[in-house]
Amino acid sequence: MDKALFYDVAIIGAGPVGCYAAKRLSEQQISVALIEQHKCIGHPINCAGLVSPRVFETFDLPKDQLIQNTITTARIHSPDNTILTIGGDKPHAYRIDRSKFDAYLADEAKKQGTNIFLGEKALSIQRDPTVVNIETSKEHNIQTDILIGSDGPYSRVRDVFGLPEPKEYLQGIGAQLNDTNLDGSTVEIFVGNKIAPGFFAWIIPTNDKGTSAHIGLCLPKNIQASPKKYLQSLLENPKTKDMLAQSNIEYYTGGIIPLGALKQTVDDRVLLVGDAAAQVKPTSGGGIYPGLLCADHAVNSISKALEKQEYTLSELQTYHNDWRQDIGKELSMGMYFRKLYTRLSDEQFDKYIKKFQQDSIVDIITEHGDIDYPSRLVKPLLKKTPSLLRILTQLVV
């Protein structure tokens, strides 16, 4: 084992959230070790890559380098293929190149002084009163004042320190297609218990011509049939025939999505961020925006702790309190919306999508719909259509 290497902060997991936290900390002349078990940043790909414009506006990221396509419109297909079209007025989402996105953040962290350990798994994580010790698969012994667990849905850091589990896990599968026939500005969404029980399926054009796309879906882990079987059914579905008849699969993607943000994300000398903390939108499965937002709060709390040289749970609890105050209510509301959504039958999907086709309701959804803050749609929607309250009541009972 090599001589111990000491860093103010060590981060396990070099996804976008871990890389962003490393960059922010290194900018403050805080020494950072970023430990990643894979040999290449941004691989394997396990994300649909759809984010809101807010990600680029809030975190000052370069659009020209990272965006593959701009999405203005969504078409939601019910089980009987009633189609609800929303948006069309402005960019509502961007399809990013996830490999380049992650690599960009890693490069920025490295430029600021982060030391990145690639292809190294944390074999041992131990905490004593004065330091956290990490032994890696390449026989590095890394010591740190504060450890950030940004190591995904099945976080080793979370398990080692006995922090709570997410409430639910989804299993996702996708594929990158070429030779598709799509409107390049429109994402196609499919709901229903035969297509994607407990969640939804999507086709996202990855260029403005609509000739390439990412197709995918998520399922609760208790579904018996394999995700790949559902994906194959979607590829062969009559609803997708005109879009995908000539398409070919370039490669598959897949991953696990944790839902239900943790009630505790800190311990002595330890913080969890991103998927490790289940800081993921339950309505869409997206974790980039909330993860980056929470990383900012983690950086602020760590900076103060290092200045005070105080690394206790009570000191780091400011991070947990701050992110909960910022986005915790939204994530909790998302779990509530998800509970209602999973109770819908195919007949109800058909009925409500038909109801939402009214121009006045479409206008409200287009104006107030927000993939990062879906709760902002509830008040104006209920004001326009009070009958929706009865529908919600029926689903809760």
Short description:
By secondary structure, the protein is α/β, with parallel strands linked by helices. It has 13 helices and 18 strands.
Provide a descriptive summary of the structure in words.
There is one protein chain. With 397 residues, the protein is an alpha/beta fold. The protein has a domain at 69-93 and 168-258: D-Amino Acid Oxidase, Chain A, domain 2, CATH 3.30.9.10. The chain is 36% helix and 27% strand. It has 13 helices and 18 strands. Helix 8 packs antiparallel against helix 9 (313-341). The radius of gyration is 22 Å and the shape is globular. 44% of the residues are buried. The model has no long low-confidence stretch (mean pLDDT 93).
User: How many distinct helices?
Assistant: 13
Gross morphology is globular
What is CATH's topology name of the domain at 69-93 and 168-258?
D-Amino Acid Oxidase, Chain A, domain 2
Approximately how much helix is present in the residues?
25-40%
In the CATH hierarchy, what is the class of the domain at 69-93 and 168-258? Answer: Alpha Beta
Rg value: 22 Å
Tell me the CATH architecture of the domain at 69-93 and 168-258.
2-Layer Sandwich
Mean pLDDT, nearest integer? 93
Strand content is 25-35%
Can you count the beta strands? 18
Catalogue the unreliable spans.
none
Q: Considering the protein shown, what is the CATH homologous superfamily of the domain at 69-93 and 168-258?
A: D-Amino Acid Oxidase, subunit A, domain 2
Structural class: alpha/beta
Terminal residue distance? 59 Å
Largest sheet: 8 strands, mixed
